[in-house]
Amino acid sequence: MQPEPDARGQDRQTVILVRGHMPGRILILDDNMTRRITLAARLSGAFYDILVASSEGEAHAIIDKARPGVILVADELVCQPAAAFIRALRADPEHRSTTIFVLTAPGGQNGRADLLMAGADEVLPRSEPDEVFRARLRSHERSREMVRTLQMGGDEGQMPGLSEAASQFQGKIAVTLMLPDADQAEAWRAAIGPVEGLQFALAREAEPALPHATERSGLVLLGVLPGAEHRAFRMLAERSAQPDGDEDELLILAPEADSATVIAGYEAGAGAVMTGPFDPAEIRARLIRLRDRLIRRRGLHRALKDGLIAAVTDPLTGLHNRRYALPQLARLSAQALVAEQELAVLVLDLDHFKQVNDAHGHGVGDLALRSMAQTLQDNLRPGDLIARIGGEEFLVALPQTELAAARKIAARLCRAVRETPVLLPGPQQRLRLTVSVGLAMAPPTDRAPEDLIAAADKALYAAKGRGRDQVALLGCRRKPTRRDFAERVGATPPAAPPTGTQMRFLI
Asked: Which InterPro entries match (predicted)?
């Protein structure tokens, strides 16, 4: 491989590294050496790592090794059309987030829609001013950074449910046309024509949401016409101020716009700004690109949300797990202290569960746990906390519940489990279960959740020792006083001493 001169006239190899403090690596693919050097020189002041390739094969080798975040592709490649190179790259899931710009000759309009449909994020002339080019680049960098954040540093293929998100997406995405001139907006809608998966409406029809759109956030097509720039951006600001308005994907059509207007569009959050003539095919292609980006982002949001839910959910029963229960129990205990109310804590254990597994197998054991979980849920109040905290052990917290009511609820749970047999596979096969319950009343102190559970667990062992299928209580029961609250929050306690404390240990 022959050395080629860099932007400063020095001989360097085809891979040029311009190191700087700004993160990001850009690959330039162009078989014209002059254009490569010129573009590398333009970008060198932006503190990116610049790599260049003179052929598709060389580009693929650099991509596999250096994994650039941005690829700039010349539209006039000798060996392979730019669209074919982009399709091959997009076929690899690892490069789905890579930003791809196609650089064309000044004024070139032919084939732009095809390049966008092939997977290009942007098609722009080489003569574009540096400040506009960098504004486009920053916009796509922000989008890529958002994706990386949602991925939490992992690969999309490793996030459960995400790989199917786009293919399983059904319904239409709203496209809101926003122009100061309603007649012009209607004319644009007619000229663009239908696009699969998209539903168009004028801004006046689109608030608060389109009737058949699946979600509030969607696509916005904003027209910025000469002389009406301020009004257009004011409409966009009003839209962004609405709930979820900042989650839209924005396409700005700004024919004949100057550099300042284009930069303002990207700073306003645009995914793309079109400055050329009105081209329905290009508009449709750009809307499809933004639609796919929106669907992908929604899928990442759902995967992240599902992952957070899974982290605090027991997969067998669907109840919350110990990780969720402990901080919630601490919260309920603190609320009870402030409100001077009582809190009851129950620990329930399925009786003879090992015998169930030994006699019927673990499949029936799992069925028994699911049945018990459902029975407990059906017999608790909406504000009560229930969680599976161990193998066959469950936790229930009863806020704003005094001892008498707590004992009734615990007895009701025992009775409900006893009277709800588990239906086993096979004709007329039923498995009857019982449960033992330990009950503890939380005193109005800074008692840790683990201590409350330990007290209820101690009572549970007493219930087991007495023959199971019953409730046992271990408690330090005292009506909370204002002194407790005052000492808790650091206030001065009242002068009068609190009433005497009556301790009840019931086992």
From this structure: CheY-like_superfamily, Diguanylate_Cyclase, GGDEF_dom, Nucleotide_cyclase, Rev_trsase/Diguanyl_cyclase, Sig_transdc_resp-reg_receiver
